[in-house]
Amino acid sequence: MTAYLRVCDENTLKDGDIMGFDYQANVDNGSHKANKRLLIAKIGGKIYATDGICTHQYADLSMGILNEDEKTVTCPLHLSAFSLEKGIPLNPPAEEPLRTYEVFVKPEDGGVYVSLPD
Ligand code: FES
User: pLDDT tens, 15-66?
Assistant: First the structure.
């Protein structure tokens, strides 16, 4: 079942912003919880959500560098760049893609929501 996570108000995100968002996810068929982190970024009015931790080692991508022209975030630790649209790493050392998530704004409350499929 898909969960919808409210991560912020739309009007708090400006173009060029990146932020991390911590949440607890169900794992092992809901028998355990795990701490997870998302990366939220806004470029040209579009909001992107990916996993917030690099797939190479443990690095917080919200501390990385956003490239608005290329729509990438570059890991602060070893500088792999990831596509925000597809999650794929564009250069080593990272090889595994980030998961990407659907994002939408709810007009009723102006909230930014991320769809988290189980
Ligand atoms: S931890 Fe991100 S590239 Fe190494």
Answer: 999 999 999 988 787 788 889 999 999 999 999 999 999 999 999 999 999 9
Rounded to two decimals, the pTM is: 0.94
In the structure, what pLDDT confidence band is assigned to residue 76 with cuts at 50, 70 and 90? very high
12: three-class secondary structure by DSSP: helix
- Look up the CATH number of domain 2-117: 2.102.10.10
Distance of CA 17 to the CA centre of its chain: 12
Q: Where are the domains of the chain?
A: 2-117
* Top mutation candidate among 37, 74, 77, 88 for ligand 1, by most atoms within 8 Å of CB: 77
Q: How far is the CA of 87 from the centre of ligand 1 (A)?
A: 14
**Ligand 1, atom 3: nearest CA belongs to which residue?**
78
Torsion, CA 30, CA 31, CA 34, CA 40, rounded to 10:
0
